[in-house]
Amino acid sequence: MHPIAKDPLLRVEGLSKVFRSGEAELVLFENLSFQVAKGTMLAIVGQSGAGKSTLLHILGALDRPSAGAVYCANSHVNTLSEDDAAEFRNREIGYVWQFHYLLPEFTALENVAMPLLTRGQPLSTAEQEASRWLREVGLEQRGHHRSGELSGGEQQRLALARALITQPQVLLADEPTGDLDGRTGELVFELVARLHREHQLTSLIATHNLAFARRCHRVLRLDQGKIEEVAPESLPA
């Protein structure tokens, strides 16, 4: 079991998400509480519709809970104003989704540089750092190709470089291998694991792939609105 830190990087207390439609209520999850120590690679597993993506959105200040609190990197995340939430995301969080959301009209290099350009960094600095990150993910030869010319696995590696160029503390990955074939998914997972180690990330990975979840430090299963910790070695290899 990965140790719980005395001062966890992420702390979730009594988290609930309820969707209301007229008189009807859909309780997606309720009263979730857990902590994540710095440096942990945590898998979140569960059926489609269990709320894994919504949970990641709330942890990353992209959505608000119906009740409860999220504390991350000394911020009370769910009470931040829109501007402060955007600043928190920009500073602390790297996101990778199942669909890469790359900009097809831009090159690989330009896509990776974009987060630094939006921060107001000079083009030369941003492109130099983007080149370094393309090397990190094995795409240094593809920098001048448009993102639409890359394979699915290359696009997801590019999305990882873009997520991490801002040097966030936390990586949130939502089904990062979900659209990839088995071998390509394996390569992307291995890359996530290597970047996690080398950059001392705290990573939360929502995944259907139990063999990948098994290789994380900790596993939380979201099921019927509740969360439980399961031993990684109890999952099928």
State the major sheet: 6 strands, mixed
Overall geometry comes to: globular
User: Which CATH first-tier class of the domain at 10-101 and 169-234 would you pick?
Assistant: Alpha Beta
Low-confidence stretches: 1-5
Termini separation comes to 18 Å
**Which structural category do the helix and sheet elements fall into?**
alpha/beta
What is the H/E order? EEEHEEHEHHHEHEHEE
Overall helicity: 25-40%
What are the key terms here?
alpha/beta, Rossmann fold, six-stranded mixed β-sheet, four-stranded antiparallel β-sheet, about 35% helix, about 25% strand, disordered N terminus
Could you characterize the architecture of this molecule?
It is a single chain. With 237 residues, the protein is α/β, with parallel strands linked by helices. The chain is 33% helix and 27% strand. The strands form 2 sheets. Strands 6-7-8-3-9-10 form a 6-stranded mixed sheet. Helix 4 packs across helix 5 and helix 5 (152-164) packs parallel to helix 6. The protein has a domain at 10-101 and 169-234: 3-Layer(aba) Sandwich (Rossmann fold). The model is unreliable at 1-5 (pLDDT under 50).
Task: Give the structure's gist in a few sentences.
The protein is α/β, with parallel strands linked by helices.
Layout of strands and helices, then pairs:
Layout: E1 10-21, E2 24-36, E3 41-45, H1 52-59, E4 67-72, E5 75-76, H2 82-92, E6 93-96, H3 108-118, H4 123-136, H5 152-164, E7 170-174, H6 182-198, E8 202-206, H7 210-213, E9 218-223, E10 226-230
Parallel strand pairs: 3-8, 3-9, 6-7, 7-8
Antiparallel strand pairs: 1-2, 1-4, 4-5, 9-10
